[in-house]
Queue: 2 jobs
Job 1
Amino acid sequence: EPEVTQTPSHQVTQMGQEVILRCVPISNHLYFYWYRQILGQKVEFLVSFYNNEISEKSEIFDDQFSVERPDGSNFTLKIRSTKLEDSAMYFCASNRWASGSPDTQYFGPGTRLTVL
Amino acid sequence: RKEVEQDPGPFNVPEGATVAFNCTYSNSASQSFFWYRQDCRKEPKLLMSVYSSGNEDGRFTAQLNRASQYISLLIRDSKLSDSATYLCVVLFSGGYQKVTFGIGTKLQVIP
């Protein structure tokens, strides 16, 4: 069964450093998402991406964040200058999304980001 | 009112028990509803979609009440392996797809 993959599984960085989290969505999916989950809190939507552009972003997704699909398979989340409060689990998800019908999002295993 | 509201629990139930979780949502224009399961420090995994007519998958039954903006999940004959956090997920599809998660309800099945 195809699955979403993410690398690295754990990233430790110093405050102020840039990090890039990588995701390989399921190959025939068209819509891509990033979520984060701070320990003990709920899963929070960050951004959705379709047709090489952001389709929706939350208030969390400020100028420090950016996303890119640099090639046909990878989908990346960049945090330019990490803060302590960016420490969280970051999940990538993808789906095909046929408008008007429910379409499940499939989640990757996550990258645990620790900012020191 | 929170967009998606769940009782965080924990619900501690003995093996074999029946347990029900509820979820309410605030956006009446929401279109699709799901229950996901999340094990500790793992990614959410789809348990089942929720339809107005109700749907069943083995020991799991999900129900949607659009008038009350209420979703439920019933687990019969609980197994130890059912111990997890159950996430209520609400989706709005307009020109974009917005997914909102509840905080999750933690279930612990006790031998």
Job 2
Amino acid sequence: GENVEQHPSTLSVQEGDSAVIKCTYSDSASNYFPWYKQELGKRPQLIIDIRSNVGEKKDQRIAVTLNKTAKHFSLHITETQPEDSAVYFCAASPLGGDKIIFGKGTRLHILP
Amino acid sequence: DTAVSQTPKYLVTQMGNDKSIKCEQNLGHDTMYWYKQDSKKFLKIMFSYNNKELIINETVPNRFSPKSPDKAHLNLHINSLELGDSAVYFCASSQFTDYGYTFGSGTRLTVV
């Protein structure tokens, strides 16, 4: 079955700097890669996703990249702000799959 | 108008008790899920139902029994609660896995 590895587990970044979170997946049949943000005490919320027919996708300060050959995908947050502090989860789902497999999460701290 | 709602939000109970958590979605999605989030924030799938039919049953103790009376509702009943059952339980729904999940607000279960 699919296995998703996520690094780092904790990341501290100065406000205004960029943050990068990296994930790898094992199942070459995976074709959908969502990213979720979970603020303290709240539910995980979908912030951006990418499908395997696309190498990069951007939404304002957030971008995701996908390298299918290496089975890597990454989340990039630029000009970080205090409200970006949260736990971020990467995930993968195979084509026609019946579930999304999550990475173990990255706790992002934005330092003032 | 909450898309995926769970009740109760908090549940504190003694070991050995039986408890239920309820979930309802008004998004018209066909598939609903239960995920368990432990103290390390890891999101692990427990069950999935598609249009009232059980399609995923991960290695969960049989003290946990899901029930889906219709495609908009998915409940979780837990018998003989143990200390290790303490966690946040999230319900989620999706139309297709490659369009992501919408999560409920979670139920924090504490077994004492």
